């Protein structure tokens, strides 16, 4: 089940996109996974696919926003 992100997280993503800030994203692979993965890059855009929001890096890698644990060191999800 998709859980919408907070307004604070959305604002942080927008600033990172507008300023092209190199970002570090720590996220889960899916809702049932406990394995954490890390991506680094510049967030190019956000998109919605089947009602789920994703951030898209310049490298074309996508991460579902509600699976992000930390974005640039700031926690957005409880483990």
Question: Would you write up a description of this structure?
Answer:
Helix content is 16%, strand content 46%. The chain is an alpha+beta fold. It has one domain (7-75): SH3 type barrels (Roll). It has a six-stranded antiparallel sheet with strand order 4-3-2-1-5-6, covered by helices on one side. A hairpin with a 4-residue loop joins strand 3 and strand 4 (62-64).
Large-scale geometry: globular
Distance between the termini: 16 Å
What is the N-to-C succession of helices and strands? HEEEEEE
In DSSP terms (H or I, runs of 4 or more residues), the helix count works out at 1
CATH class category label:
Mainly Beta
Beta fraction:
over 45%
Radius of gyration: 11 Å
Helix content: 10-25%
Structural class: alpha+beta
Number of domains: 1
Structure summarized in a few sentences:
With 79 residues, the protein is of the alpha+beta class.
Throw out a few tags for this protein:
46% strand; six-stranded antiparallel beta sheet; globular; alpha+beta; 79 residues; single chain; SH3 type barrels; 6 strands
Question: How is the secondary structure organized here?
Answer:
Layout: H1 7-19, E1 22-28, E2 36-49, E3 52-57, E4 62-64, E5 68-71, E6 74-75
Antiparallel strand pairs: 1-2, 1-5, 2-3, 3-4, 5-6
